[in-house]
Amino acid sequence: MRNLRLVIVLLLVTFMAPMAQGQTEDDIRKAMSAALKFFGSTMGAGLYHSADVHGPLGFCLGVNGAIVAVPDEFEVIPVINDDKITLGYLHANLGLGGNLEVTGRVLFFALPGELSSVPTPGASDGNGKLFSVGVKYGLLQMPLMPKLALQANGHFVTLPSEFDFGTVRGASVKLIASHSFAIFGIYVGGGIDFSRAEIDDDFPILGGESFDETGFLYSVGAQANVLPFVTVNAGVNFGEYNSYDLGVDIGIR
Description:
There is one protein chain. Residues 1-10, 13-20, 75-80 and 118-122 have low confidence and may be disordered. The protein has helices at residues 9-20, 25-44; strands at 2-4, 59-69, 84-95, 100-111, 126-140, 147-159, 166-180, 184-199, 210-227, 230-239, 243-252. Helix 1 runs antiparallel to helix 2 (25-44). It has one domain: Lipocalin (Beta Barrel), CATH 2.40.128. The chain contains 2 helices and 11 strands.
């Protein structure tokens, strides 16, 4: 396994599939830039549901999903049969004290065998994992008042070597505001998502080239306490590529 950053299955789709279809390097270059921005936006979505920072040793564990609209330029690729993608991930937050907490999430996804770096008939499927780690700092955390926090995350992916074509890295920085009422709360936030891809020098197409993309994403959502220590949340993420997220958390503050 080799570490890549900020790339999931459709980044491979947009890069490998055009190669098999005999498109030009310029076509692949445009597809790579679009895919990199798309996945920077996708990985920047659903990172937060509150600006309320957990206290010392306070924590939450949860399961979240995201529905992402597939841009029109990706729908022509044969392995994409839908106009939306559903992603599911596990996440955790842990309070450290001093208005500081660490965050993390992991996403599991399947890779069709035809997307391997050397596509062959009957190639085996693979599995990848995306890890996102970050830190949240509470700028305003007064009791009974709206909360304000700043969060930064880095994104890392592991892929089987047969799907490897280079290195991609990225980061998301978000400013979040939220307010809690009796049994529910609302939040808004926004920020920037950076992503960079570097193709291996010995790769047959675009070897040694690099791509940089930056996007902005804004989110709004709500959460509700349905049981003691159990919270459900839902949000909408607005940007060049829109998405929706829904999840459930168990934890204490």
